[in-house]
Design brief:
Layout (H helix, E strand, L loop, with lengths): L1 E4 L2 H15 L4 E7 L7 E6 H12 L5 E5 L7 E7 L20 E9 L2 E2 L6
Antiparallel strand pairs: 1-4, 2-3, 2-6, 4-5, 5-6, 6-7
Helix pairs in contact: 1-2
């Protein structure tokens, strides 16, 4: 699933339901970069906790560019890039600077107690 979505809560709920159904005991890493590239943070834990953090982080996005690949061979199952509204007083810059867009990357690190090796699930 790839695309630009305006209802980010609905998309993150879909991702959460799908991943928990497929991999209920998975371990994951979540990488979050705030607006302007600030706040780069990495979290590790069970898939349910990581999905809660993902939903919370993305809750304020007016829209998001989403890539969701639950069967990705390297475990990179979801990435979301939040859309940033252009500043109303900056008419010359109608397209947001890509560095200002908040980003999230969710990767699976273990499924069923087995670590995901590069290229294997």
């Amino acid at each position: 699933m790839r695309g630009l979505y305006s209802d980010v809560a609905q998309v993150t709920d879909y991702i959460a339901r799908d991943l928990v159904a497929r991999f209920p005991d998975a371990e994951a890493e979540l990488f979050l970069n705030g607006r302007g590239g600030a706040g780069g943070t990495r979290y590790k834990g069970n898939i349910k906790d990581m999905l809660l953090l993902l939903r919370r982080f993305c809750s304020g996005f007016p829209g998001a560019q989403v890539r969701f690949e639950p069967e990705h061979p390297y475990g990179m199952v979801a990435s979301l890039v939040g859309q940033v509204s252009p500043r109303s007083n900056d008419r010359a810059n109608t397209v947001p600077n890509p560095r200002e867009q908040p980003r999230a990357l969710l990767t699976l690190t273990a499924v069923g107690g087995r670590k995901i090796e590069v290229g294997r699930r």
